[in-house]
Amino acid sequence: MKLDAIDRKIVAILQEEGRMRTNELAEKVGLSPTPCARRVVALEDRGVITGYTASVNQEMLGLPISIFVSVELDNQGAEALQLFEKEVQSFEEIMECFIMTGSQDFLMRVVAADLGSYERFLQEKLTRVPGIRSIRSRFALRRIIKRDRLPNLSH
């Protein structure tokens, strides 16, 4: 899928300010509002722009702890991987989940209010998922970088 320079500029600007009005966005990319709006809709339809959300401070919402959880399954067959993916979809504590190469099958970023709430997440949810061989947790001490904008969009 090829994006031209204007599409890339639209995406870059919307990553910085997703609530920008079409008129303002059109001015920044050098288009009139109607063609700019059509391009945004096309980018959404093509799946380049997948949605709009508010960035929130997890600490201010009472979830100051981030835990990186590695999961290794007993079996790495397609059915076992799909079952795990299906089972964890409803766990709202999981902010991101990746299937991995190497010795771990999945890596998740989990948020929690405190150690007790993380322990409850483990005992009442994650350890009840069938097929898990091991779970390893690493607690983040402090976030150094958080980016929402992807690199090299102007190229």
From TrEMBL:
Residue ranges annotated for the HTH asnC-type domain, each copy included: 3-64
Origin: domain of life: Bacteria
Cellular-component GO terms for this entry: cytosol
GO biological process: regulation of DNA-templated transcription; response to amino acid
Molecular function in Gene Ontology: sequence-specific DNA binding
InterPro entries: ArsR-like_HTH, AsnC-type_HTH_dom, Dimeric_a/b-barrel, Tscrpt_reg_AsnC-like, Tscrpt_reg_AsnC/Lrp_C, WH-like_DNA-bd_sf, WH_DNA-bd_sf
Record's keyword terms, sorted: DNA-binding, Transcription, Transcription regulation
Gene3D superfamilies referenced in this protein's UniProt entry, alphabetically: 3.30.70.920, Winged helix-like DNA-binding domain superfamily/Winged helix DNA-binding domain
Protein name as annotated: DNA-binding Lrp family transcriptional regulator
Organism, as annotated: Maritalea mobilis
